[in-house]
Fold this protein.
Amino acid sequence: MSCRIAGTWNSPHLIERAPLIMQDILSYEFMRNAIIAGIMASIVCGLVGPFIVTKRMVFISGGLSHAAFGGLGIAYWLGIKPLYGAVAFVLLNALIIAEMGNDRLHRNDLIIGILWAIGVALGIIFIYLTPGYAPDLMSFLFGNVLIVSSPDLINTSVLVLIVTIAVFIFFRGFVLIAFDEDYARAKQLPVKALNRGLLVLVAISIVTLIQVVGIILVLALLTIPVAIASEVSMNFKGIMFLSVLLGILICVVGLFLSYYSELPSGALIVLVGGVMLSLTKLIKGLFI
Amino acid sequence: MQKLISVRNLSFRYGENPVLQNVTFEIAPHDFILIIGPNGGGKTTLIKLILGILKPWEGEIHFHGAIANRLGYVPQFSGFNRNFPVSTFDMVLTGCINGENYLKRLSRDDIEKTSIILEKLGLYNKRRSNINALSGGQIQKALIARALVSEPVALFLDEPTASIDITSKATLLDLLEEINEKMCVVAITHDPTPFAHTYKHIACLNRTLFFHKRGELDIHTLEQVYGCPVELLGHGIPHTLLKEHH
């Protein structure tokens, strides 16, 4: 599998040698890029994840990330950069969900489920129609942060910047619609526009994350750091800040393990997150 | 008579189901109106329309003066997201946010007002607690504090006495009576009895609305007739106590 990289697993002295190993790892450009991509993904996770969790948008996020597959497929077929296809398609789907979600007659989860399936189906068809083998297909499904190129990083950093600035400016509005949408309406906030804006930010975050953990595992990075942070902090800003740090920790540890175990990086990142969440719950259960 | 809000021929439907039909009534500055009626009768829908949370299908809601953004809302306790990560202080502080200032930082004045309200409602020592650590009565008060912090001219409460214990209920009623001296109070309730001393008018709502001024429909009389507090009121159905609406 393309996600594997060579390395040696020499656990007894791993801790002592950690600084050397880090130096070793960082001497490779692909590892530096991988870590930078992981950090950028963690920033958007931490900024957007708490809204996704508190506003119960986890299913929407799952739908959008799978719908991205359609965009990737079409981009392949057209011969353009897959990332652009994913951004365009996820944004389109986000706007469809926002539009339908405002209509009480439509059940939101129904629309999301359908878009989810149609996205994947389109992806399969267009990749099938594209001559030759699509080598990065597995990377998009399961993530391969190790093939992120420097131009990819520049594109991603633009997305991260957009998310960061938007969350900073509209923070109060987003928190209020996540907490009590009716109240926000009663206070004459532009709830419809804020909801739409938040969905667009979720869409952008998902595309950023797909590079790191892949379509199927995006949900993990949007939820696990927030879930751990929520065990520790009961304050929205605190959860955001902790989620960013935890995301970075999870990504770096996952990449580190991937380098040495030759196991796929995306899956390892998610499992590291899972283990950390379980440990947090366990420790909290034992001592508090 | 001085008016605050006039509701005229208001109709609303969810899809094909009419929820409200031709609702007309007036709210005056120091009214204390109870909205009663069966489940699904449109009580919550009516106040959501007045508050601008829902848009009317037909008819209009006319505000006398620039008060559309000066309405306080205390939502139903059961629909409230108690697990949201927010402290009592910050939750009450969100009451200061509105469509005009939500992009700006909250002022020192807002923070001060929040402290004063919390102090007044006896929640100041709970200000750092997370909202899910509060009791039912405390949450209800915190929700009222959130509505009051923006200095509204009218307070709309959805089932304020539901799911709180008797002691909290009594303090809450005293509080509402005090609030009523400064502003108009509109409360949805399925249990009008505790409001017997404070209410001024009763609006019976079951798709259409019938407005009863105090005296016309006296809760004490009803209690005497039943020999016990009355929870259910029905017009024109078996065991009727009142004349049918015409």
Summary: The mean pLDDT of chain A is 86. Residues 136 and 222 of chain A are 23 Å apart (CA to CA). Residues 150-179 of chain A form the longest helix (30 residues).
